[in-house]
Amino acid sequence: MKASTLFVAAISAVGMVSASPVAENESTHQLEARETRSSQGWYSYGCYMDCYNGMNRFLPHVAYWNNPANDPDTCIAACQDAGYTYAGLQWGVQCFCGNSLNGSPPTASTDCFERCTGSADHAGAHCGGACRNNIWSAFEKPGH
């Protein structure tokens, strides 16, 4: 096959890609990758480490420890109402808040494996993991 024919075939295939919402039977991982803004306008920062080390957490304020209705909007609202600019969802049911990341290192997105159990609007979204927060902030992530 000629190079020009391959180029036309590749362009045609790209043209078939749709920007429509993810269908219900598609992977929730694809849905998560697209969810970068909350309904409150906060920005997703991704997965960050945050573990109690005997002294403090990177996000020190505990909004709640065990909320089976946890999702980004619920955690963000709790942090925003308490006057904080960062929200971290951990272990699927926990929410922590702060006004900076205090040096919290980013980790692989696969470390935030727990799924949110809250509203259908966030079905399949990630809500942290073991010592891992899915971070949301009122500020756009630097460099994005």
TrEMBL record:
Keywords: Signal
Entry keyword annotation includes Calcium: no
Signal peptide from the UniProt entry: 1-19
Official protein name in the record: WSC domain-containing protein
Domain WSC intervals: 41-139
Domain of life: Eukaryota
InterPro entries for the chain: WSC_carb-bd
Organism listed in the record: Kockovaella imperatae
UniProt entry tagged with the keyword Phosphoprotein: no
